Q: What sequence folds into this?
């Protein structure tokens, strides 16, 4: 949640920060602000609303001449979205300004102590408490800013990524992190600090990903010093080369990032398969398993932890892994797993899934698993993310940057990774014959082209959406591998169109939800010929007899369901285990066009942010 951008160097700071904040609005967009120092005056401009509104306010400041500054786009936690709660937050003296992503859990007790020492507060935020705590330590301990920040952070409980500026030290920024990501771009006599690398990719390819509980003192004379917050140990900065291009984070002619990312899925799946599915050799190679195959082969149980869309991908993974390896799998919400004192054995394997690699609950679940001696495998999309560093090993998806808040290509590439993993382990265990293995490899390789074929039905799906954009409720049904797709389809509709929707196993209709069916209730049914087709047809007949309006996702050439459904969207034939990659595509497009026709902000739906880095 929340996006941070800061700059110190020899360029004008304001345009760099504003452009960077626009790229980070997927992290939060209910209020925004910037502080700029022109050498004598520190200007702070804040507003409720989006970065475009802040940009208008900045125009009224007659383009402040500043070569250092920091900005923030907010997803509210403490305090409602308004101007006073927007960041940056200033200290009582107005010498310090601070931007913050995360939650300071003990802010109330710290605030009470500061009030007793004469401090006053104008906002409802925990961030204003932190900036005044730093100032108080500066005064009491007579220490430099970096040391004051370090001492303050040893007194707070919670998660944070922060950047601090002191007007009396105009050539210095302080950055620190615990539980929320920060990247430092290293340019020619200039530095950029941001929640991810997208704000500075056109300025530098050199990046330092700040590690957990590390603090960086960044000076404009090309000097950067990194220390561990608790031990004060000096850390040598590790500079990496960014594997990202500016083109990746632009819309490329599409109306929304979500639509662009839906259409990027054929290539994203190909990229995820590349180098792993070796069709010429008839095998799968996963470097992340090379030294750890025995751990998987001897595992008595696999636990998958994830949140949101990644949790749905985990449910598909459960079907895949159990089918091909015969290893029992349990799928847990990371947010519940971390709080219910889970039973974890040392020979368990924990698989953590997250698009961003920064999901707070999933990171906490990993920490618990490692403390109890389990082997942890990560599946994420962002190179250098916290999950990729915390896990014992893992596999990157190659979806590329996903800017739209509603996840699309992350879901299909996560399933692609689990298809590779399950097939590879199944072959090693001998629970999959060579002929079955080869058949599945051939089909897996064909999936990108089949996704492309589905995307050609965009116009049809748009027309179907126009018949349902005024509905208030919707039910999604699927069986077997496509039950998780029903959950994911319902989530997409809820996220971006604000229509209440629920996903169910189709057979569960008779156990309650059928009471909701009438002529006003749209029902989306995934009814491919593979799997439990006859059973699903019976479910459709039950809905039709109660006047439900049916949108069916069917296999090419289907006849039986077409006679019953009001609308049918066809997908190419495939092996049952791979159908989720295909059937989810029309549901993504359906949700997208319903949301667009309802006038919703597709890329930035209300109350949501892309990466949930706070509890």
A:
């Amino acid at each position: 949640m929340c996006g941070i951008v800061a700059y110190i160097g020899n360029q004008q700071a304001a345009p760099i920060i504003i452009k960077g904040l626009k790229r980070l609005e997927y992290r939060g967009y209910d209020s925004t602000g910037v502080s700029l120092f022109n050498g004598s005056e520190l200007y702070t401009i804040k507003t409720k609303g989006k970065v475009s509104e802040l940009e208008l306010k900045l125009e009224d400041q007659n383009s402040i001449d500043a070569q250092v500054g920091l900005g923030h786009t907010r997803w509210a936690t403490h305090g409602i979205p308004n101007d006073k709660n927007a960041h940056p937050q200033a200290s009582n003296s107005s010498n310090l300004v601070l931007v913050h992503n995360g939650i300071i859990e003990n802010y109330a007790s710290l605030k009470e102590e500061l009030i007793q020492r004469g401090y006053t507060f104008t906002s409802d935020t925990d961030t204003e408490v932190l900036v005044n705590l730093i100032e108080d330590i500066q005064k009491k301990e007579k220490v430099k800013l970096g040391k004051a920040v370090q001492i303050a952070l040893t007194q707070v409980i919670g998660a944070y990524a922060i950047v601090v500026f002191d007007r009396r030290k105009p050539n210095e920024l302080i950055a620190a992190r615990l539980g929320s990501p920060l990247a430092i771009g290293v340019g020619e006599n200039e530095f950029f600090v941001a929640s991810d690398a997208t704000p500075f990719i056109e300025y530098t390819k050199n990046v330092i990903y700040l590690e957990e509980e590390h603090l960086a003192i960044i000076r404009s004379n090309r000097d950067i010093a990194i220390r561990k917050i608790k031990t004060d140990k000096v850390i040598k900065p590790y500079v990496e080369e960014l594997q990202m291009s500016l083109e990746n984070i632009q819309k490329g002619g599409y109306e929304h990032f979500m639509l662009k990312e839906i259409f990027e899925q054929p290539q994203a799946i190909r990229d995820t398969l590349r180098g792993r599915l070796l069709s010429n050799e008839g095998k799968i190679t996963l470097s992340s398993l090379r030294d750890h195959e025995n751990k998987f082969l001897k595992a008595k149980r696999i636990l998958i932890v994830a949140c949101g869309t990644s949790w749905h991908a985990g449910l598909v993974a459960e079907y895949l892994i159990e089918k091909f390896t015969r290893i029992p799998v349990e799928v847990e919400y990371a947010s519940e797993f971390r709080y219910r004192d889970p039973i974890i054995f040392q020979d368990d394997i924990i698989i953590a899934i997250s698009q961003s690699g920064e999901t707070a609950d999933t990171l906490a679940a990993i920490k618990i698993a490692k403390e109890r001696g389990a082997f942890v495998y990560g599946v994420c999309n962002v190179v250098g993310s916290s999950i990729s560093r915390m896990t014992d090993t893992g596999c990157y998806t190659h979806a590329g940057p996903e800017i739209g808040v509603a996840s699309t290509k992350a879901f299909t590439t996560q399933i692609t990774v689990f298809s590779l993993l399950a097939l590879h382990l199944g072959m090693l265990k001998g629970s999959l014959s060579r002929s079955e293995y080869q058949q599945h490899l051939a089909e897996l390789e064909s999936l990108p082209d089949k996704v492309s074929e589905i995307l050609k039905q965009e116009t049809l799906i748009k027309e179907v959406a126009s018949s349902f954009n005024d509905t208030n409720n919707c039910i999604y049904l699927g069986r077997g591998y496509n039950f998780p797709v029903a959950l994911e389809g319902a989530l997409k509709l809820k996220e971006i169109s604000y229509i209440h929707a629920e996903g169910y196993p189709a057979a569960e209709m008779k156990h309650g939800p059928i009471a909701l069916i009438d002529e006003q209730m749209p029902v989306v049914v995934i009814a491919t010929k593979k799997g439990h087709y006859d059973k699903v047809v019976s479910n459709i007949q039950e809905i039709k007899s109660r006047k439900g309006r049916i949108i069916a996702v069917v296999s090419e050439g289907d006849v039986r369901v077409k006679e019953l459904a009001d609308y049918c969207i066809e997908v190419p034939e495939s092996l049952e285990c791979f159908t989720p990659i295909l059937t989810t595509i029309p549901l993504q497009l359906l949700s997208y066009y319903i949301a667009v026709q309802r006038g919703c902000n597709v890329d930035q739906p209300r109350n949501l942010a892309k990466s949930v880095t706070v509890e």
User: Anything to note?
Assistant: The chain is about 35% helix and 25% strand. The first strand starts at residue 3 and ends at 8. Residues 96 and 330 are 48 Å apart (CA to CA).
